[in-house]
Request: fold
Amino acid sequence: MEVPVMFGKRFAISDVPAFDANILALAANPSPQTDAEPQPTMSSPAIGPRSPIRSESYFSAKAQIFKAIVDAVNFTELAKLSPATARQEIRRLVGEFGRERQLPLSTDEEKCIFEDICDDMLGFGPLEPLLARDDISDIMVYGPAKCFIEVNGEIQATNVRFRDHDQLLSVCQRIVSRTGRRVDESSPICDARLPDGSRVNVIVPPLAVHGVALTIRKFRKTRLTLDELMRLGMISTSGAELLKIIGHARCNVIVSGGTSSGKTTLLNCLARYIEPRERVVTCEDTAELQLQQPHVISLETRPPNSEGVGEVKMRDLVKNCLRMRPERIVVGEVRGPEAFDLLQAMNTGHQGSMGTLHANSPRDAISRIVSMVVMGGFHLPYHIIQQMICAAVDVIVQTARLRDGSRRVTHITELIGMEGEVITTQDLLVYEITGEDAQGNLCGRHRMTNIGHPRLRERVTEYGDLERLTAALAATD
Reply:
C-alpha cells in the first residue's frame, strides 16, 4: 500500500508532542556552528557507522531539503506511522525535493542527508550513529562539541557534534519525556532510560557549569550470559559454575562493585537461573534489568512533579512489593533506607532475593549496608543490624573495573556467622593479579580457595546441586 502523502497541512508545535520546536531551528541552521569548541584530542576521533561528506554544498542542500520537509509535512500524521513507514516517507521526500531543486547530490550524499534528517526528526539527532553501535558501553556528552565513548574499557573522543546547546538540551528533553520525566532549570538532574533499557543521566545548567552533561550507559543488543562473561575473562569456568549454582539454589545475593564494574550485567546473568515458575518483582530507579522469566513485575521509582509532590521512592517500592506475593525480590541498586526493607524481605521467606550496591570489597559492602540502615533513621544497636545482615545475606559477589579497563569478578564471598559483634566471612573464589603484559594489560587468574565445608552446602544439597558444588570448588582453571 502506498504511503499517504503528508503535504498541504500546517501544524502547531503544541499539537505534536512527539516533536519539538527545535526541529524548526534545525531547518534554519542544520550545520554545526563554526565557532564551536575545538575537538577533544584524547585519541583518534571515533566515528559512527556512516561518515558523511561535510562540505558546504552538503550543508546547503540539507538545509534546503530539511526546511522544505518541515514546511510540508503534517507531523501529526507522521507521528501515527510506524518508524519504518515514517523513514520510507522521509526517504521519498528527500529524493523529491532534491530533484525539484536540482541539487547536485551524489547517491552517498543523498543517503547521508536522509539519515541525518531521520535522526533529527525521529530519533536522537547526532547520537543515533553511536546508539546503533553495539561495541560502545558508555556515551558521555559535555556541551555541544564534546562527546566521548567507551569501547573495550578505553575512552575515546568522537567526531559527534550538536548544532548548539539548545539542540543538545532538546535531545535530552526528548529522551527523558518518554519516561514521563523532565529536565530543566527547576529540575536540573534527571535519570531516565532509552527504549532499549539503556540508562541515561542528564544534568543541566546551572549545576553543569559549561553546558548540558549527558551520560548514557548503553545496553548491548545481545544479552550477555555467564558463559560469555567467562569467554571475556570476567569469571573463570569454575567460578561461572559456582554462580550458576548460587542462582539456582535461591541464595540471597548482593552484587557489590564500583561504578561501571559490571554489577547490573552480572545481576542479569544470575537472574537467568531463576526458575520460570517463580514470581519475581524488580524495584529500580530506572528500569534496566532484562529478566526473561514469564512472571516478572517491574517497578520503577518516580521523581516529584513540578509542584514537588507525587514522588515514589525506592523504599516505597520495596515495601509495596512485599504485598505482591513475590517469591524473589530483585533491587536494581540499594542506596538508602530500602536496605532495611530488603534485609527484612530476605529474612522473611523471600529466598533468592538479589540486589546491587556500590562498595570496593565484600567487607566494605557489609559496612555500607549497616550505614544505609543507620542513615534511614532506624534506631537499632549496631550488633543487631550485623545479625540481620548475617541472617539475610548468603553471598556477596564482588566486581571491579581494573585500571586497564577490564572487568573482573574479584571475590565470591559467603557470610558464615557472628564472632562477637563482627560478621565472619570466607572467600570461595578470589582474583589474583600476577603482572602486566607488554601492551599494559593486567594479567591474573581466578583461584578457588579450596574451602572444604562452605556454609552453602546445606542450601545447595536441598536443591540437588551438592556434587556440582563440590566439583566447582575443587576445580583448578
User: Anything to note?
Assistant: The chain has two domains: 13-217, 226-474. The chain has 16 helices and 15 strands.
